[in-house]
């Protein structure tokens, strides 16, 4: 029997949240991070500045279904009172008591932030729509990643935030998010037990 143990090579990997860790070079996670996550968007200070400067947010892909995350985020943004919130969904007429618009061009004003709840493959067309109306910032929700689209948007002068929840970021910056990640506010998508 051979007692010699091979030492596996590790690589220092920077995670999307900015932390670094050593991963086995052959691990699927190390390969995925190397191949897909080279683009970096605005840092925390820049994201805070975006949220502070914004007066209006359009939610593209908004849903009238209370189980959908866009509904929950829309509820939070409306209750924050900090923004004029517009819902963009060509298949709805009203969401959360507000009119729903078929597209960005139909909004009564140019939104400061276009918050996107669409598939990664749909992001380039949303970027084109945002550019066409003159929106300065595209915010792509948590779990959605399209690096080529982000680079394209930036090349056209758009500020792009990707793979971040605008609700979580707003709550974190404004004291409504506990260090463990729990929202300390009253809004919840979970039904209360009685």
From TrEMBL:
InterPro entries: CoA-bd, NAD(P)-bd_dom_sf. Pfam families: CoA_binding_2. Residues 50-144 form the CoA-binding domain. This is CoA-binding protein. It comes from Microbacterium binotii. The lineage of its organism: Bacteria, Bacillati, Actinomycetota, Actinomycetes, Micrococcales.
């Amino acid at each position: 029997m051979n007692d010699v143990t091979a030492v596996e090579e590790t690589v220092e990997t920077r995670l999307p949240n900015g932390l670094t860790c050593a991963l086995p070079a052959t691990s699927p996670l190390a390969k995925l991070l190397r191949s897909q996550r080279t683009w970096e968007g605005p840092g925390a200070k820049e994201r805070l500045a975006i949220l502070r400067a914004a007066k209006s947010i359009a939610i593209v892909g908004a849903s009238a279904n209370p189980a959908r995350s866009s509904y929950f985020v829309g509820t939070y943004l409306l209750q924050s009172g900090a923004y004029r919130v517009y819902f963009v969904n060509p298949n709805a007429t009203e969401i959360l008591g507000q009119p729903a618009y078929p597209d960005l061009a139909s909004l009564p004003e140019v939104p400061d932030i276009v918050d996107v709840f669409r598939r990664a493959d749909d992001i380039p067309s949303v970027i084109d729509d945002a550019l066409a109306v003159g929106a300065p910032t595209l915010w792509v929700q948590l779990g959605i990643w399209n690096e080529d689209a982000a680079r394209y948007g930036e090349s056209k002068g758009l500020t792009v935030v990707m793979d971040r929840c605008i609700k979580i970021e707003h709550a974190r910056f404004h004291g409504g998010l506990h260090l463990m990640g729990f929202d300390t506010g009253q809004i919840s998508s979970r039904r209360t037990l009685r």
